[in-house]
Amino acid sequence: MDNTQDNKARTLEAARKLLFENGYGGTTSVAVAREAGTSKATIYRHFGNMDGLLQRVIEIEVERFQPPQAQDIVDFNSFRAAMVGFGTNLLTFLNNPETIHFSRMLSEQARQQPKATKLYFEAAYQGTADSFESMIEIGAPYCRSVALPEEARAERYVALLKGHRYESAVLGLESAPYPNPKQTSIACFNAVFIESSAKDKSRKT
């Protein structure tokens, strides 16, 4: 890694550390530069400003899990595997104490830092729903939903998957909200989707 990329990586690492320790409002460019052993100029060169840097930290947090590629969904079984796998990854991610702490921190500072909260919502909550919606749209010819209306179906699926347990963890009432992420994801899928019958498939074609 060249010096420029090394400085960028160290800046991101420092920003993440300080963001988790001090919150959005307590993380300054001076503190990040000092922690990273770089300079304020490094922040502005690579990220534009502190908002750009913190936005990138938030994006990296939600990039730790990715949905399967859409082209991998070619029948009901591959649709089920994609949905269950992504759901399992999501709940495993939400079980992480750092993820819970990060959500708690942003919730506490929502009024003071609406820009950061909006970034996190769009990247994490809306981004997750959009990923599920893409998979549902591609998997629709191979199944039918027994529990989801067409309107906001991905959002409803995420709500069913998460339940209220994550909010309980953010409030500090439990440390690991999903003891069995894969089992929960499987149960959620099985409660919502069933394979299309031959008659259903002929109607769709």
Short description:
This protein has 205 residues and is mainly α. Helix content is 69%, strand content 3%. The radius of gyration is 20 Å and the shape is elongated.
Describe the structure.
The chain is mainly alpha-helical and 205 residues long. Helix content is 69%, strand content 3%. It contains 11 helices and 2 strands; from the N terminus they run αααααααβαααβα. The protein starts with a helix and ends with a helix. 30% of the residues are buried.
Question: How are the elements arranged and paired?
Answer:
Blueprint: H1 3-22, H2 29-36, H3 40-47, H4 50-62, H5 76-95, H6 97-108, H7 114-139, E1 143-145, H8 153-162, H9 165-170, H10 181-192, E2 193-195, H11 198-204
Antiparallel strand pairs: 1-2
